[in-house]
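Team,

Forwarding the record for the chain on the shared tracking sheet. I've put the sequence and predicted structure together so nobody has to dig through attachments.
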Amino acid sequence: AVLVQDFGVARLIRAVCPDLQIHASTQMSLTSAETIAVASQIGLSRVVLARELSVGEIHKISAQTDMPLEVFIHGALCVAYSGQCLTSDSLGGRSANRGHCAQACRLPYELVCDGQTRDLGPVRYLLSPQDLAGYSAIGDLIDAGVSSLKIEGRLKTAEYVANITRHYRLAIDQAISTGKVDVSQQSRREMELSFSRGFSPGWLEGNDHKRLVPGLTSAKRGIELGRVIKSRNNQLQIKLAAPVALGDGLGIASDGEAIQGGRVYSLTSESGESGRVAEQGCTTWIGFGKGEIDWQDVHPGNLVYKNDDPKLNRKLRQSFSGGDPRQSRPIHLQVHAQAGQS
């Protein structure tokens, strides 16, 4: 199939190649059964609904149409209706609708009200939504009649695709067999490590703008490991909120917004024992390479994040590495032969 935003393009495709399947992109912003009826009239065979709909609204739409419905379940969210943002083009000369978003919504902004600048403290990223992680709504979306779930994959790595699709495949199977989804803490951490600006249910549970846009950061930070207790000789001490291993990538938030980091060179317990892995709940000294960290910017209370896990990456890579994939399908032959005839 081809995925299109423009109704005119859809009509053109239908005229040029009547047998080609056409799917409505989420950029069409189809938010009602009436708009889907128009899409059906011009020959579209599947609709990716606007990401701004709640489960309840999707349920009402599904009850009024026979069109197969597809819903975004995981990935980045836009502050504008998907596909309708002109900020990237007007400020950066790059069209978001052509896959070249300048990410203007990820920049820090000030709030000016009646000519007065409001002091929002650390809240500066006023237009940057957290990422959608809608696994808890899978059962409700199945009940609502949704045909398929869509995971954002643009500009993402193969490891990201392998990781996120694996977890959602398991969640869908769980929802179908048990009627509910129970994503473990480990599974959530693995998904956050692939990419996360912080997870939220997006609009699937309705509008909750403070939850969707906390405004504290706009970048991927990873899993929060804990806060710096103290530092010494290229090491910092924290109480771990998640496991960490040698070679993991960590980020340390400074007193400002900047994050610096590096690889884990050593792990030492409070009793002085060294190891390759430190478990959740342990108070641990984490060592970095000489010169990797500017220790003048590291102070007690700074947050520490785990943002890369080489062991997880290797496991994900093995899941899709190997020889070139080959597809085979059965062939049935009926042969007639006669002696002396070619």
